[in-house]
Amino acid sequence: MATVLDDINAGVREDMEARKRLVSLAELKDLAQAAAPARDAWAALGGTSPTREQLKVIAEIKRRSPSKGDLASIGDPASLARQYADGGASVISVLTEQRRFSGSLADLDAVRAAVDVPLLRKDFTLDEYQIWEARAHGADLILLIVAALSDTQLSDFSALSRELGMNVLVETHTEDEIERAVAANARIIGVNVRNLKTLDVDRSVFASLAGLIPAEAVVVAESGVRDADDVTHYAASGANAILVGEALVSHATPRERIAEFTAAGAAAIAARS
Ligand SMILES: O=P(O)(O)OC[C@@H](O)[C@@H](O)c1c[nH]c2ccccc12
Protein backbone atom coordinates (compact mmCIF):
# COMPACT_ATOMS: atom_id res chain seq x y z
CA MET A 1 0.00 0.00 0.00
CA ALA A 2 1.20 3.48 -0.82
CA THR A 3 2.31 5.45 2.23
CA VAL A 4 1.98 9.19 2.77
CA LEU A 5 5.66 9.47 1.88
CA ASP A 6 5.06 7.69 -1.46
CA ASP A 7 2.25 10.12 -2.29
CA ILE A 8 4.34 13.15 -1.38
CA ASN A 9 7.26 11.88 -3.44
CA ALA A 10 5.04 11.30 -6.49
CA GLY A 11 4.01 14.97 -6.38
CA VAL A 12 7.59 16.08 -5.79
CA ARG A 13 8.68 14.21 -8.92
CA GLU A 14 5.94 15.73 -11.05
CA ASP A 15 6.77 19.25 -9.91
CA MET A 16 10.46 18.64 -10.52
CA GLU A 17 9.83 17.39 -14.06
CA ALA A 18 7.96 20.63 -14.73
CA ARG A 19 10.89 22.70 -13.42
CA LYS A 20 13.33 20.66 -15.52
CA ARG A 21 11.49 21.81 -18.63
CA LEU A 22 12.04 25.43 -17.57
CA VAL A 23 15.62 25.21 -16.31
CA SER A 24 17.90 22.51 -17.69
CA LEU A 25 20.43 20.68 -15.54
CA ALA A 26 23.20 22.31 -17.60
CA GLU A 27 21.83 25.78 -16.77
CA LEU A 28 21.53 24.87 -13.11
CA LYS A 29 25.13 23.72 -13.02
CA ASP A 30 26.24 27.09 -14.38
CA LEU A 31 24.18 28.88 -11.74
CA ALA A 32 25.56 26.67 -8.98
CA GLN A 33 29.12 27.31 -10.10
CA ALA A 34 28.48 31.06 -10.13
CA ALA A 35 26.94 31.07 -6.64
CA ALA A 36 28.86 32.26 -3.57
CA PRO A 37 30.58 29.30 -1.88
CA ALA A 38 28.53 27.27 0.58
CA ARG A 39 28.70 28.21 4.25
CA ASP A 40 29.84 25.63 6.78
CA ALA A 41 26.69 24.21 8.37
CA TRP A 42 28.71 21.47 10.11
CA ALA A 43 30.70 24.07 12.03
CA ALA A 44 27.57 26.14 12.70
CA LEU A 45 25.99 23.07 14.31
CA GLY A 46 28.97 22.61 16.60
CA GLY A 47 30.41 19.72 14.59
CA THR A 48 33.94 21.00 15.04
CA SER A 49 33.60 21.35 18.82
CA PRO A 50 34.15 18.07 20.69
CA THR A 51 32.21 19.25 23.74
CA ARG A 52 29.04 20.58 22.06
CA GLU A 53 27.75 22.00 25.30
CA GLN A 54 25.32 24.30 23.53
CA LEU A 55 22.08 23.13 21.99
CA LYS A 56 21.85 24.48 18.44
CA VAL A 57 18.55 25.46 16.91
CA ILE A 58 17.63 24.82 13.27
CA ALA A 59 14.67 27.15 12.81
CA GLU A 60 12.28 26.29 10.01
CA ILE A 61 10.20 28.44 7.67
CA LYS A 62 7.14 26.22 7.28
CA ARG A 63 3.83 27.50 5.93
CA ARG A 64 1.74 24.37 6.12
CA SER A 65 2.04 20.63 6.60
CA PRO A 66 0.03 17.64 5.42
CA SER A 67 -0.74 16.66 9.00
CA LYS A 68 -1.78 20.07 10.37
CA GLY A 69 -2.83 22.14 7.35
CA ASP A 70 -2.00 25.84 7.39
CA LEU A 71 0.35 26.70 10.24
CA ALA A 72 0.87 30.41 9.70
CA SER A 73 0.48 32.97 7.00
CA ILE A 74 4.06 33.99 6.47
CA GLY A 75 3.80 37.22 4.51
CA ASP A 76 7.50 37.90 4.50
CA PRO A 77 9.82 34.91 4.92
CA ALA A 78 12.85 37.24 4.87
CA SER A 79 11.62 39.10 7.92
CA LEU A 80 10.87 35.85 9.77
CA ALA A 81 14.36 34.59 8.88
CA ARG A 82 15.89 37.78 10.29
CA GLN A 83 14.04 37.20 13.55
CA TYR A 84 15.34 33.62 13.61
CA ALA A 85 18.89 34.81 13.03
CA ASP A 86 18.57 37.52 15.70
CA GLY A 87 17.30 34.90 18.15
CA GLY A 88 20.46 32.87 17.60
CA ALA A 89 19.35 30.16 15.17
CA SER A 90 22.46 28.31 13.95
CA VAL A 91 20.86 27.19 10.71
CA ILE A 92 17.63 28.25 9.03
CA SER A 93 15.59 25.59 7.27
CA VAL A 94 13.43 26.64 4.34
CA LEU A 95 10.80 24.14 3.27
CA THR A 96 10.65 24.35 -0.51
CA GLU A 97 8.17 21.53 -1.22
CA GLN A 98 5.17 23.08 -2.95
CA ARG A 99 2.13 20.79 -2.96
CA ARG A 100 1.94 19.71 0.66
CA PHE A 101 3.96 22.38 2.43
CA SER A 102 3.28 25.47 0.26
CA GLY A 103 6.99 26.22 0.08
CA SER A 104 9.03 27.35 -2.90
CA LEU A 105 12.48 28.15 -4.17
CA ALA A 106 11.34 31.78 -4.11
CA ASP A 107 11.18 31.48 -0.30
CA LEU A 108 14.72 30.13 -0.30
CA ASP A 109 15.90 33.03 -2.48
CA ALA A 110 14.23 35.60 -0.23
CA VAL A 111 15.77 34.10 2.90
CA ARG A 112 19.20 33.77 1.27
CA ALA A 113 19.16 37.47 0.44
CA ALA A 114 18.18 38.38 4.02
CA VAL A 115 20.50 36.43 6.32
CA ASP A 116 24.04 35.18 6.55
CA VAL A 117 23.52 31.97 8.55
CA PRO A 118 23.76 28.59 6.78
CA LEU A 119 20.53 27.50 5.08
CA LEU A 120 18.97 24.07 4.82
CA ARG A 121 16.99 23.46 1.68
CA LYS A 122 14.28 21.26 3.16
CA ASP A 123 12.66 19.10 0.54
CA PHE A 124 12.19 15.51 -0.50
CA THR A 125 15.42 15.00 -2.41
CA LEU A 126 14.95 12.29 -5.01
CA ASP A 127 17.15 13.42 -7.87
CA GLU A 128 20.54 14.96 -8.49
CA TYR A 129 18.72 17.86 -10.15
CA GLN A 130 17.42 19.05 -6.75
CA ILE A 131 20.93 19.08 -5.29
CA TRP A 132 22.23 21.36 -8.04
CA GLU A 133 19.10 23.43 -7.62
CA ALA A 134 19.72 23.79 -3.87
CA ARG A 135 23.27 25.05 -4.47
CA ALA A 136 22.19 27.35 -7.30
CA HIS A 137 19.73 28.97 -4.89
CA GLY A 138 22.32 29.46 -2.15
CA ALA A 139 21.62 26.48 0.14
CA ASP A 140 24.43 25.17 2.35
CA LEU A 141 22.83 21.99 3.62
CA ILE A 142 20.35 19.56 2.06
CA LEU A 143 18.06 16.92 3.51
CA LEU A 144 18.27 13.25 2.58
CA ILE A 145 15.51 11.05 3.99
CA VAL A 146 16.75 7.49 4.39
CA ALA A 147 13.24 6.02 4.14
CA ALA A 148 12.86 7.44 0.63
CA LEU A 149 16.23 6.45 -0.84
CA SER A 150 18.30 3.40 -1.76
CA ASP A 151 21.79 2.96 -0.29
CA THR A 152 23.28 3.88 -3.66
CA GLN A 153 21.24 7.08 -3.84
CA LEU A 154 22.21 7.94 -0.26
CA SER A 155 25.90 7.67 -0.97
CA ASP A 156 25.77 9.23 -4.46
CA PHE A 157 23.68 12.20 -3.31
CA SER A 158 25.92 12.69 -0.25
CA ALA A 159 29.02 12.65 -2.43
CA LEU A 160 27.58 15.18 -4.88
CA SER A 161 26.50 17.50 -2.06
CA ARG A 162 30.00 17.41 -0.57
CA GLU A 163 31.57 18.09 -3.98
CA LEU A 164 29.42 21.21 -4.14
CA GLY A 165 30.65 22.22 -0.67
CA MET A 166 27.37 21.47 1.07
CA ASN A 167 26.64 19.36 4.12
CA VAL A 168 23.89 16.78 4.39
CA LEU A 169 21.32 16.25 7.11
CA VAL A 170 20.47 12.57 6.92
CA GLU A 171 17.04 11.89 8.37
CA THR A 172 16.16 8.64 10.10
CA HIS A 173 13.24 7.21 12.03
CA THR A 174 14.28 3.61 12.85
CA GLU A 175 17.31 1.68 14.05
CA ASP A 176 17.81 0.19 10.59
CA GLU A 177 17.75 3.66 9.02
CA ILE A 178 20.42 4.86 11.47
CA GLU A 179 22.62 1.94 10.43
CA ARG A 180 22.16 2.92 6.79
CA ALA A 181 22.92 6.58 7.55
CA VAL A 182 26.12 5.61 9.37
CA ALA A 183 27.13 3.28 6.53
CA ALA A 184 26.75 6.25 4.15
CA ASN A 185 29.21 8.20 6.38
CA ALA A 186 26.60 10.73 7.49
CA ARG A 187 28.04 13.33 9.88
CA ILE A 188 24.79 15.12 10.66
CA ILE A 189 22.08 12.64 11.56
CA GLY A 190 18.51 13.58 12.36
CA VAL A 191 15.92 11.47 14.12
CA ASN A 192 12.50 12.59 12.96
CA VAL A 193 9.95 11.67 15.62
CA ARG A 194 7.25 12.04 12.96
CA ASN A 195 6.83 8.86 10.95
CA LEU A 196 6.59 10.09 7.36
CA LYS A 197 4.71 6.99 6.30
CA THR A 198 1.81 7.71 8.67
CA LEU A 199 2.54 11.27 9.94
CA ASP A 200 2.19 10.07 13.55
CA VAL A 201 4.37 11.86 16.11
CA ASP A 202 5.96 9.85 18.92
CA ARG A 203 8.47 11.95 20.88
CA SER A 204 9.83 8.91 22.72
CA VAL A 205 11.36 7.68 19.43
CA PHE A 206 14.18 10.19 19.85
CA ALA A 207 15.41 8.92 23.23
CA SER A 208 15.18 5.31 22.09
CA LEU A 209 17.34 5.91 18.98
CA ALA A 210 19.74 8.77 19.76
CA GLY A 211 22.15 6.50 21.64
CA LEU A 212 22.75 4.44 18.48
CA ILE A 213 24.30 7.39 16.66
CA PRO A 214 28.13 7.55 16.82
CA ALA A 215 29.56 10.31 19.01
CA GLU A 216 31.36 11.97 16.05
CA ALA A 217 28.07 12.85 14.40
CA VAL A 218 25.93 15.87 15.19
CA VAL A 219 22.59 14.52 16.45
CA VAL A 220 19.48 16.45 15.47
CA ALA A 221 16.07 15.94 17.12
CA GLU A 222 13.46 16.70 14.47
CA SER A 223 9.80 17.61 14.95
CA GLY A 224 7.39 17.80 17.83
CA VAL A 225 8.92 20.62 19.87
CA ARG A 226 6.00 22.44 21.51
CA ASP A 227 7.71 24.14 24.43
CA ALA A 228 10.87 24.31 26.53
CA ASP A 229 10.00 21.02 28.26
CA ASP A 230 10.21 19.18 24.95
CA VAL A 231 13.57 20.84 24.32
CA THR A 232 14.80 19.73 27.74
CA HIS A 233 13.68 16.19 26.99
CA TYR A 234 15.51 16.05 23.63
CA ALA A 235 18.67 17.68 24.99
CA ALA A 236 18.75 15.36 28.01
CA SER A 237 18.38 12.39 25.64
CA GLY A 238 21.41 13.32 23.54
CA ALA A 239 20.39 15.98 21.02
CA ASN A 240 23.09 18.40 19.86
CA ALA A 241 20.53 20.33 17.84
CA ILE A 242 16.77 20.58 17.41
CA LEU A 243 14.80 21.27 14.24
CA VAL A 244 11.71 23.35 14.99
CA GLY A 245 8.99 24.50 12.63
CA GLU A 246 5.44 24.86 13.90
CA ALA A 247 6.31 26.13 17.39
CA LEU A 248 8.25 29.03 15.84
CA VAL A 249 6.08 30.02 12.88
CA SER A 250 2.97 30.06 15.06
CA HIS A 251 4.57 32.08 17.86
CA ALA A 252 4.21 35.85 18.23
CA THR A 253 7.88 36.35 19.16
CA PRO A 254 10.00 33.66 17.49
CA ARG A 255 13.21 35.48 18.36
CA GLU A 256 12.58 35.20 22.11
CA ARG A 257 11.30 31.65 21.65
CA ILE A 258 14.60 30.52 20.11
CA ALA A 259 16.56 32.13 22.94
CA GLU A 260 14.33 30.31 25.43
CA PHE A 261 14.85 26.95 23.68
CA THR A 262 18.62 27.52 23.56
CA ALA A 263 18.72 28.24 27.28
CA ALA A 264 16.61 25.18 28.14
CA GLY A 265 18.86 23.03 25.96
CA ALA A 266 22.10 24.30 27.47
CA ALA A 267 20.79 23.66 30.99
CA ALA A 268 19.79 20.10 30.09
CA ILE A 269 23.15 19.40 28.45
CA ALA A 270 25.00 20.74 31.49
CA ALA A 271 22.93 18.43 33.70
CA ARG A 272 23.82 15.37 31.53
CA SER A 273 27.37 15.01 32.81
O1 LIG B 1 6.87 21.59 12.76
P1 LIG B 1 7.70 20.68 13.62
O2 LIG B 1 6.90 19.63 14.32
O3 LIG B 1 8.57 21.47 14.56
O4 LIG B 1 8.69 19.87 12.63
C1 LIG B 1 9.75 20.50 11.94
C2 LIG B 1 10.47 19.49 11.01
O5 LIG B 1 11.08 18.51 11.79
C3 LIG B 1 9.52 18.88 10.01
O6 LIG B 1 9.04 19.95 9.23
C4 LIG B 1 10.18 17.86 9.11
C5 LIG B 1 11.09 16.93 9.47
N1 LIG B 1 11.47 16.18 8.41
C6 LIG B 1 10.77 16.58 7.34
C7 LIG B 1 10.83 16.16 6.03
C8 LIG B 1 10.06 16.79 5.11
C9 LIG B 1 9.19 17.81 5.47
C10 LIG B 1 9.15 18.27 6.79
C11 LIG B 1 9.93 17.65 7.73
UniProtKB/TrEMBL annotation:
Pathway: Amino-acid biosynthesis; L-tryptophan biosynthesis; L-tryptophan from chorismate: step 4/5. InterPro entries: Aldolase_TIM, Indole-3-glycerol_P_synth, Indole-3-glycerol_P_synth_dom, Indole-3-GlycerolPSynthase_CS, RibuloseP-bd_barrel. It catalyses: 1-(2-carboxyphenylamino)-1-deoxy-D-ribulose 5-phosphate + H(+) = (1S,2R)-1-C-(indol-3-yl)glycerol 3-phosphate + CO2 + H2O. Signal peptide: none annotated. The keyword Amino-acid biosynthesis applies. PROSITE patterns: IGPS. Its EC number is 4.1.1.48. GO terms for molecular function: indole-3-glycerol-phosphate synthase activity. The keyword Amino-acid biosynthesis applies. CDD domains: IGPS. Residues 5-260 form the Indole-3-glycerol phosphate synthase domain. NCBIfam families: PRK00278.1-1 (NF001369), PRK00278.2-4 (NF001377). HAMAP family: IGPS_B (MF_00134_B). Belongs to the TrpC family. This is Indole-3-glycerol phosphate synthase. The lineage of its organism: Bacteria, Bacillati, Actinomycetota, Actinomycetes, Micrococcales.
